[in-house]
Design goal:
The protein is an alpha/beta fold. The protein has one domain: TIM Barrel, CATH 3.20.20. The chain has 15 helices and eight strands. It has helices at about 5-15, 25-35, 45-55, 55-70, 75-100, 120-130, 145-155, 170-190, 205-220, 225-245, 260-265, 275-285, 300-310, 310-315, 330-355; strands at about 20, 40, 105-110, 135-140, 160-165, 200-205, 250-255, 270-275. Strands 1-8-7-6-5-4-3-2 form an eight-stranded parallel β-sheet. Strand 4, helix 7 and strand 5 (about 160-165) form a beta-alpha-beta unit. The relative contact order is 0.15.
């Protein structure tokens, strides 16, 4: 496909530290992304529902087959089998990248059941199971209290983790520390950590979304541009701490709402997960591909957010929250609720096939 300007996306993966992932397991979208330099992909309940709706002709026969192949299965069992197959199909597409990069890139992130967000044992068990589905699976675990514990345990068990439902500096630090504990336990027992590439997502756009919602609820008026930089400020602070402390976890930045969520992170040793629609916009833009990760956000924006929006202080300050507070943070609650609703919609689609 001929693009007006393919330079921006291409340069973020060639000649720079910054990688691009496809924010979807859609085969069509992933093919486009890989052709343009993407080296990974990710899924969540919302993504799977949207992909299924777009690509239903490719999956409806398989759903019917699964129903017949699994005569005693519940609708949830069939739904999860479908999720696994969609993920593995995308993972297979990434295998050439995985092999060419000696296992350091080319992974497909598959998300654990959002219903388990309070249960460390169930999250860990599902993570270990997902890890065995394909050589290049990366397992998404929520950065909740139970999820932080599961990240340590799954890492210790040799699972490549991707922390999700994460919006804040305290969550990013807790994730990195949990991964370090897991890696150290493996090293102390003489277990290999070769090929382990843990990442921690910061859902930058959802951080912005929540700050806007928190500001609206408070009735406090601030420069609206502050809200467009809130997530960027959080991500850049977390990145600076990661680099300083030499954590072996890498940041994965996503949930684009404006081009800052791509352009401001170029040059950083990070991965950016970008939807197909945004990839096309970026590839057809004339925005300069310039290293900006180390350029700080305007102090005035940060000052206003810290002074006026208490939720931003929780998100931005390293000690803004304790691990025990992660589950009650507004963006966490809102995102988990949305994921659970997306999953329910997916189950309803499967149920429709079961009762045809």
């Amino acid at each position: 496909m001929q693009q007006k300007n393919i330079t921006p996306m291409y340069l973020t993966t060639k000649g720079k530290k910054t990688d691009v992932w496809n924010d979807s397991c859609s085969i069509k979208e992933l093919n486009y992304a890989i052709e343009n330099g993407a080296v990974g992909a990710t899924t969540n309940p919302a993504i799977v529902v949207n992909v299924l709706k777009k690509e239903m002709p490719d999956w409806e026969d398989r759903i019917v087959e699964l129903i017949h192949e699994m005569p005693k299965a519940t609708e949830d069992d069939i739904t999860w089998k479908l999720i696994e197959e969609m993920g593995c199909k995308a993972a297979k597409l990434l295998m050439p990248v995985f092999e060419n990069e000696n296992g350091l890139k080319g992974r497909l992130s598959l998300q654990t059941n959002a219903k388990y967000y309070r249960d460390t044992q169930r999250i860990t068990e599902q993570a270990i199971y997902f890890d065995k589905l394909a050589p290049n699976i990366q397992v998404k675990i929520p950065a909740t209290k139970a999820g932080i514990e599961a990240i340590e345990m799954a890492t210790y068990k040799g699972v490549n983790t991707n922390a999700t439902v994460s919006f804040t500096v305290p969550q990013a630090i807790a994730v990195a520390e949990a991964v370090e504990r897991g890696l150290i336990r493996r090293e102390n027992e003489g277990l290999s950590i070769a090929g382990m590439t843990p990442v921690c997502t910061i859902m930058v756009g959802r951080t912005d979304d929540w700050m806007k919602e928190a500001g609206k609820k408070s009735g406090i008026l601030i420069d609206p541009e502050c809200y467009e930089w809130a997530g960027v400020a959080v991500a850049k602070k977390a990145y600076k701490l990661y680099m300083k402390r030499k954590y072996r976890t890498r940041l994965l930045l996503g949930a684009l709402r404006n081009h800052y969520h791509w352009s401001e992170f170029i040059g950083g040793d990070t991965a950016l997960t970008i939807t197909y629609d945004w990839q096309v916009k970026i590839n057809n833009s004339d925005i300069a591909v310039t290293d900006r990760m180390d350029i700080p956000v305007k102090e005035e924006y940060i000052r206003q957010l810290l002074e006026k929006i208490p939720d931003f202080r929780q998100a931005y300050e390293e000690d803004g929250m304790m691990v025990e507070e992660f589950d009650s943070f507004g963006a966490t609650r809102k995102t988990l609720k949305a994921f659970l609703e997306n999953y329910a919609e997916l189950v309803a689609i499967v149920r429709g096939f079961m009762f045809k």
